[in-house]
Amino acid sequence: MQADLNIPKVNDDNIVIYVPKKKSGKYSNSDYSEKESQFVDLRNAWTAHEIAEKENKALCSIGFYSFTALIDMKPTQGAVYIHSASELVNEEQQFDQKRIDNWLEHFGMTKFQSHCSGHARGRDLIEAVREIGAKTLYPIHTEHPDAYVGTVPKITIVKEGVKYKI
Questions:
Q1: Cβ–Cβ under 8 Å, residues 145 and 126
Q2: What is the pTM of this model?
Q3: Which candidate, 47, 38, 41, places its Cα nearest to that of 20?
Q4: DSSP character at residue 36
Q5: Which of 128, 129, 154, 163 is deepest in the core (most CB within 10 A)?
Q6: Distance of alpha carbon 130 from its chain centroid, rounded?
Q7: Which parts of the chain have pLDDT scores under 70?
């Protein structure tokens, strides 16, 4: 089945696997679980130091909790960071984004934002609602149903546990 998907092999020389520091902070083999160990010794598994040495040859994908790796990667001033995520929808995400922005500012990195999620952007949803021209709207699966006020003649803000007759 996997061959049908044309998925590259884990040891593909065009793919680099980032090996993070773990328990001892020294890349000791004993720091990694059995599952992780199968990747650590591959020739395309690089430590933060190796990434730093070959920065112009690497595109890294790191998660929110891996930003401390930048301390060892030492990105050059102006290195590019692409933030590919959906819009911020709550206060916690706004705090997380501020933390990311602080890391990027500290290292002098340039940020580019790319919307990426299973959802359309808020302004695109509002435009679609206007274009459809519905008479009534029941916004659900949104933290900001009030954002749709004025897009249709009648809007009903749905409340949990209440039955609505359509």
A1: no
A2: 0.61
A3: 47
A4: H
A5: 129
A6: 30
A7: 1-3, 117-118
